[in-house]
Every structure is written in C-alpha cells, then in structure tokens.
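User: Run a structure prediction on this.
Assistant: Running it now.
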Amino acid sequence: MKRWLASSRSLIALALLVAGAAPAGGHELGTIRTTVTFSRNGTWTADVTIDREHLPPGFGAAGARTSAVRIEDVPKTLPRSAIPVLAAIAEDSRPFFDGRPVLPERRAWVPSEKPDAEWKLRLSGAIPGGARAFAWASEARLGSYLLTVWTEGDASPQRIWLEGGERSSPLTLRAAVIPPTRTQVALQYLKLGYTHILPKGTDHILFVLGIFLLSVRLRPVLLQVTAFTVAHTITLALTIYGVVSLPASFVEPAIAISIVYVAVENVLRPTLSPWRVALVFAFGLLHGMGFAGVLSQLGLPRSEFLPALLSFNAGVELGQLTVILAAFLLIGLPFRHKPWYRRRIVIPLSLAIAAVGLFWAVQRLASAAAGGR
C-alpha cells in the first residue's frame, strides 16, 4: 500500500510538472513572428511581431547593450518597459544579402492589430545592388519562430521555421526586386544623359552649335563650353537636391530665348565679346534646370543617388562634346579658313538657329499662358 501511495504521488508530481511546463513551451513557439517583404522599388521591410505576454522575465533589461539602437515613431502611450525590448529585438534581428549582414536604414514601432497583446517592430532598408540571395537571423533566444517572406508580385509567400540564434538557408531573390549595381546605374544614367542631348535634345544641340559658330579658333569655343558646363552642373545638382526651383513655364521659354540671343550675337559680332562668357554661364544655369526637370521625370535610385546624378551629367557633357566634334569635322575643319566662311556658313546657320529658337520661345510662352488660365 505504501509503495502504491508513493508511486501515485510521484506520478501526480510528474503530471503537475509536465502540465506546468506545457504552456511555456506552447507560448514560446510564437513569442516572435517575422514577415519580410521585398518590393519592386528595391527595398525590403521586416515586420517583427512580439508576443509581449510571453517574453522571458527581464528580456531587454540590459540597456547598455541596446543603448545605441534608436526606435522611431514610438507613441507616448507605449510603456517605458517596451523600449528596451524593442531595442533588443532590433539589435538581434538582421538580414543577410549574399552572405553579408546589412544594417537596417530605419527601425520603427508600428501599430499592431492586437495592441494589448503584441508589439510590432518594423525594420527597413534598401536591397544591395546586384544581390542574389537573402537570409534572415535573429540572435534572440526566444524559441522557434516563423519567418514569412513575401515578394511583390508573387501570389504566395515562402515560410520557414527557425530557431532563435540560427540563420535561415539562403533564399533566391526574384529578379524583379533586385536593384542594379552601382556600375549598372552609372552606365544607365550615362546613356540617359547622352541621349538627352543626342538625339533628343534639339534645343541644347542648337545652343551648343551657336557657341561653336562664333569663332574659328578653339580657345573661344572651349571657354564658352566650360562656362556652360560649370553653370548647368551647378543648377542640375541644386535643383535635384531641392535647393533651387523655377517653374518649367519660365525655364523652357528662357532656354529658347538663350538660343536666339547666342545666334543673333553670332551675326552681329564676329568676335567674342567680354560679356559673352558671362551670358553663356547664365544661360547654362537655365539649361541645368531643364536637365533637372528631365532627370526628375526619369527618377533617381535612392541607394545610388549621387552616382546616377554624376553619370547623367557626364552623359550630357559627352553629348555636347560629340556635337562640337561633329561640327568641327563637318564644318570647321574643311571651311573655317575660307574667306567666305563667315558670310556663307556662320551667318546663314546662325539666322536659321535664331529663327527656330524664336519659334520655340513663342510656342512655349503661348503654352505657358494657356496652362496658367
């Protein structure tokens, strides 16, 4: 009888122990959940949902470890105890692209569907250019958790169960969300800048030809082109960065008027006037705003903004130099030393350029007036 009682007590104790442990194990399975989304604009977002009721006691209390992690958009109503928890999760969670860890550009609190039971942390950033594979890891030892990976345009996600502290197997990124490399961006915008001059930039071509026709000597041409280049580089950058801005209804007619002025001065003055370079510089400022308008429509990649901007400007310069080189080979080299060069080539071509520029100026002013009604 005593043996039976002792065995019964042991069984009851074991049952109570198992019963007490079972809820902890069951809740531990869902302490965190992570959903990663890849967008076609070349960005990634990771939403980490935290089951606040079943976090281990004292989790995130080591404030010194997480003091460098800043969580944005935290509401004033959120308990102060949540901040170190969110910071710890943010520090412990990271994506890997092609095997290399990438730090989030932003860590923010986002509202949860169950605010009384869950907290949600959002990590986000740019996908590295040319990346092919993605993996996820969380160093937080919070048991098993579900990783869900969505790709914009796909109907169903990929789901993986992970243990806290381990890294997922690499997942192949869809081509639609992979941003180009820096080299690819540079080549793409170099081409866009060049084609904006040749063959698309007729007004800029005529302006450069007007500069070329003024003199048979190379120095005056290079002096004007340099002033024009420096000026439009300045306003292209300032306009793209939002420092200066003028409406297209002013810029486009002014560009046409600049063409008229340069061409008419070629007819009236056979040599480079002292103010010509300054005026070309001023006109270059206007043309730079025109380039910026086109570039704004094309868009600049967020992750490679500066390389794209510089490459576009370099493409514009190559286009302008191509125009000057072609004019020199076709007109300047064979005819510039002929006694009739100015009478038969410079004046007629300059008058034709002035006529086209005047037509564009009237057309653009009329269009701007109609648009303002």
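The beta strands are 32-38, 43-51, 93-97, 100-101, 106-110, 118-126, 133-138, 144-151, 158-163, 171-172.
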